[in-house]
Design brief:
- By secondary structure, the protein is an all-alpha fold.
- It contains 7 helices and no strands.
- Helix 2 (13-40) crosses helix 4 (52-78).
Length: 129
């Protein structure tokens, strides 16, 4: 408790407010991403109240189900061979996926948004100062 008070004394009011805004912003992003994940998982999408842990657990189960369905589909297509090579599986997956997934991710345009902390809150000073 004493540490938190002394840490706050070393910060200006604008730094404290900026930190609060940053925490709130990150919390909103996290909540939005959980809701997106929840909407993608059929077993929890229709439920009214679901904890974050349940969302993640159900997402893992759903991914496992999708993986098994993909393997079954691949085995059906190749004639039930048990010796599936990694290259064969990779090419099959690439055929099944839309083209948008095969393209590399575009770099973010705004550097500041990628940072966990705003640049003006950084304790480091430029080398020339």
């Amino acid at each position: 408790m004493v540490r938190a008070v002394t840490a706050r004394l070393n910060q200006s009011a604008s730094q404290i407010i900026a930190k609060k805004h940053l925490k709130l912003h990150l919390r909103r992003i996290r909540e939005r991403e959980y809701s997106k994940l929840r909407a993608l998982v059929p077993s929890v999408a229709s439920k009214k109240k679901v904890t974050k842990v349940e969302v993640v657990e159900e997402a893992v189960r759903y991914i496992e189900e999708l993986h098994q369905a993909l393997l079954d589909r691949f085995k059906k297509k190749t004639g039930n061979n048990s010796g599936i090579t990694e290259d064969a599986m990779r090419s099959f997956v690439c055929q099944m996926m839309p083209l948008a997934f095969n393209q590399p991710a575009q770099p973010r345009k705004n550097y500041e948004k990628q940072q966990k902390r705003a640049s003006y809150l950084s304790l480091r000073r430029p080398k020339d100062c």
